Amino acid sequence: MILFKRSVDLHNYLDIQRKQGIKTGFVPTMGALHGGHISLISGAKKDGNLCISSIFINPTQFNDSADFKKYPVTLENDIVVLEAAGCDVLFLPSVPEIYPQGINAPGHYDLGTLETILEGQYRPGHFQGVCMVVHRLLEIVKPDNLYIGQKDYQQCMVIKRLIRLIGLEKMTQVKISPTLREPDGLAMSSRNMRLNDEERKNAVAIYQTLCFLKDNIEHGELAELKSKAKTRLTKKGFKVDYVEIADAATLKIINQWDGKQNLVALAAAFLNQVRLIDNITIN
Ligand code: AMP
Q: Which of 13, 31, 145, 212 is in Cβ range 3.0-4.6 Å of 25 for a Cys bridge?
C-alpha cells in the first residue's frame, strides 16, 4: 500500500494510473476502522478497482466539539487492517491539505430538505461539512467509483445530491454497501469503541427497535407505532433524538402508510455521551 500525505502527490500519481486505463475506487473514512469499512474496501477490490482509501477526521462535520475531540484514533491498526484488506493507496491528509482556505468558510451546498430533517435537524451544519470534505476529496481523487455505506442512509442521499450539484455524475458512480453488523445486530461503528460494557449490552436495542418497527408496521396511521418504538429505546437508557419512518427514496417522513410505498426506519439516540445511528429498509 502506498501512503500519501500531500494531495498534489496523490493527484499526480492517480493521473498516471488513469492514463494507463486503470479504474479507481475510493473509500473515504474517518479511521478507527472496523468490518464495515473493510467491506467497502473489499467491494472496491472485487469490482476490479485500484482501491484508494482516506483517513481524515473532518472537523467541519462535527457540530459537537466534544464529539470531535473524543473521536477514536487507531491509525497504526488502521494501516495494518487496510493492507490486509488489499487497499492499494492510503491518503492521510492534514487539515490544511483539505482546507487550504481554513475551516471556517461555511459550506454553501443546496441540500433542500435533507438539511432540515433527521440528521440535518439534530446536527446543524453537519451535512455542509460532509459536502465540503467529500467535494475536496473527489477533486483530488477523481474516482470512477465511490463506495459508501448504507449505515449513513441520509449521508448517502446527500453525497448523491452533492455529486449532481458539482457535476460529477458522469465521472463518479456511487456504490452503496449494506450495513455490516456485530453478531447481536448492532451496526458496526467507530463510536462503538466508546461504549462501556453495560452500554455495549444495551446498544443493540437501537437495531431491535428498528426491527420492531419493521415487524409491526401496518398500513394506516404510524404515530402509535413510532411512539412505542421511542419508549422501548428510552427504557433501555437511550436519550432519543428521533425514531422515524420515511420514504426510502426521498426521506419524506411518513405518518400514514399506504402499505405499498418503500420505507426506511431510522433512529438516532444517545447512550450517555455516545450518539448512535442506524436504519433498516422496509419493502
Ligand atoms: P466513517 O469512518 O464513519 O466516516 O465511515 C466511512 C464509510 O464507512 C461511510 O461511507 C460509512 O457509511 C461506512 N460505514 C460505516 N459503518 C458501516 C457499517 N457498519 N457497514 C457498512 N459501511 C459502514
A: 145
Predicted TM-score of the model (pTM)? 0.98
Burial class (CB in 10 A: 0-12, 13-18, 19+), 23: middle
| Index of the ligand 1 atom closest to the CA of residue 30 | 2
**pLDDT (average), residues 172-177:** 98
DSSP-derived 3-state class of residue 223: helix
Per-residue pLDDT tens for 79-117?
A: 999 999 999 999 999 999 999 999 998 779 999 999 999
Cell of 5: 500525505
Residues with catalytic roles: 37
Ligand 1 neighbours, Cβ below 6 Å, are: 29-30, 36-37, 39-40, 148-149, 151-152, 177, 179-180, 187-190
Q: Which residue has the cell 445530491?
A: 161
Q: Number of helices and strands (H, E) in the chain?
A: 11, 11
Distance between first and last Cα of the chain: 40
Residues 6 or more apart whose Cβ sits within 8 Å of residue 55: 29, 30, 31, 33, 75, 78, 90, 91, 92
If one counts every other C-beta atom within 10 angstroms of the C-beta of residue 133, the result is 22
Q: Which residue has the cell 467509483?
A: 145
Residues 6+ apart with CB under 8 A from 58: 30, 98, 129, 130, 132, 133
Amino acid at position 192, single letter: N
E strands present in 178-237: 220-221
Mean pLDDT (the chain, rounded): 97
